[in-house]
Every structure is written in C-alpha cells, then in structure tokens.
Design a protein that fits this description.
Undecaprenyl pyrophosphate synthetase; globular; 7 helices; six-stranded parallel beta sheet; 236 residues; 15% strand; alpha/beta
Length: 236
C-alpha cells in the first residue's frame, strides 16, 4: 500500500443487529464491539495511519433505553481501566471529542486522566467521539470565536478563514479525515464530522461492527489507495 490515509474516521455501526441476529441481548453486541476497537487500533498502527477517530457515543444516543445507556457507560469505564496503559505503551495518544462533561463523573475523570497520561505520545492519535454531535461542535466553535472576537475584532473582520475556523473545532491541530469507514451498510453521516469530512473518501462495508476485523481495515485502506482525489479539480 503506497497511499496511506493520514486520518481514518469510523462510524461503528451494527452492534445491536449483530446481537439480534445471534439471538443475544444488545449488550452482547456492544461487548463484542469493544474487541473490534482493540483490533482496529492495532491495525491503524500497523498500517501507518496517524489519526483514528471512532464514533463511540452520539448526542442522539441518549434517546436509547436507560438500561442500554448504562451498559454503554459501564463498557466505556471498563475499556478505560483495561486499555489506557496498553495504549500508552504502544505510543497512542487519546483525545476526546464532544461535550464530555455530560457523561458520568467517574467516566469524565478517567477520560481526562487518560488524555493527560498519553498527551506526549506520537505513534497514533486515537480520538473517541463521546456525547458528540457535529452540529453542536460547529455551534461550540462559533461561540468560542464570538468570545475571542471581543479581544480580537479582526477575527470577524476578514480574519475568519476556513483554516482559522478549523482551529476552533474539537479536532484542532489534526488533519481532516482522508477516509470515512461505516460498517453495517448504512449510507448516512449521522451528524459526524460534517465540516471535517468535506473531501473524505467514503468506504461502506456490509459487515456489522463486531465482525469488522484487521483485514477489513486493511482492505478499506487499500481501496482508499485506488481512489483519485481531485478536490474539485481535473487531471491535466
């Protein structure tokens, strides 16, 4: 593979349907999905991807049954306790995207501790989008810009470029995703990285997230390498 995407974003979809197809409770699908996260992080490191963003919990997910939300939070708590040390050893930097303070207090504490502990790692940046919504991200960016413009009026007087706006997003300092992967065959962006995905290549697989393996990640990266990215221009 000669053309490796710097940034891969993944909408991890299909845990519930995977479980239903096997006659299992939805919780079983979410638990199986955690193992896929481990394998995908390793695959990203092996292939040389610089940034991996996983859509873990959207703002819309609060509409799910309370029992399922409780299970998801427990799994997140378990993942952080079990995996942060391993991620740190592998040189992975963990960053959180979203309005995190709405999550349970114990989870927020672990997330912030994990971010601090891994802040100097450079092998891979792993973004977890938690309580995330892209429209909300853009609104948060606008609010910060308006606040900063009080001391820097030029920001709103010709100084607000696309590059400047990007610095106010949760992904500030990172390259935009080159490749978006969505599992389970769905054809929606689901309020995920709407600004950042403007020119991303999209790869859809019918596999449910718990069935997504290392070779599937590699195949998505390989397919990306076959695409011709013109960014609105034409080849000479």
């Amino acid at each position: 593979m000669n053309d490796i995407p710097r940034h891969v974003a993944i909408i991890m979809d299909g845990n519930g349907r995977w479980a239903k197809g096997k006659g299992l409770p939805r919780a079983a699908g979410h638990k199986a999905g955690v193992e896929t996260v481990r394998e995908t992080v390793k695959a990203a490191i092996e292939t040389g991807v610089q940034v991996l963003t996983l859509y873990a919990f959207s703002q819309e997910n609060w509409k799910r049954p309370k029992e399922e939300i409780s299970i998801l939070m427990s799994l997140l708590d378990f993942f952080l306790k079990q995996e942060v040390e391993s991620l740190h050893r592998e040189g992975v930097r963990l960053r959180i995207l979203g309005r995190v303070e709405a999550l349970p207090a114990n989870v927020v504490t672990q997330l912030r501790d994990a971010e601090r502990r891994t802040a100097d790692n450079t092998r891979l940046t792993l973004n977890l989008a938690l309580n995330y919504g892209s429209r909300q991200e853009i609104l948060d960016a606008v609010a910060r810009i308006l606040s900063d413009s009080r001391e820097n009026p030029s920001l709103l007087n010709g100084g607000l470029t696309e590059e400047a706006f990007s610095r106010y997003l949760y992904t500030s300092g990172q390259p935009d995703p080159d490749l978006l992967v969505r599992t389970s065959g769905e054809m929606r962006l689901s309020n995920f990285l709407l600004w950042q995905l403007s020119y991303a290549e999209i790869y859809i697989t019918e596999k449910f997230w718990p069935d997504f393996r290392r070779e599937d990640f590699v195949e998505a990266v390989r397919e990306y390498g076959k695409r011709e990215r013109r960014f609105g221009a034409v080849r000479a």
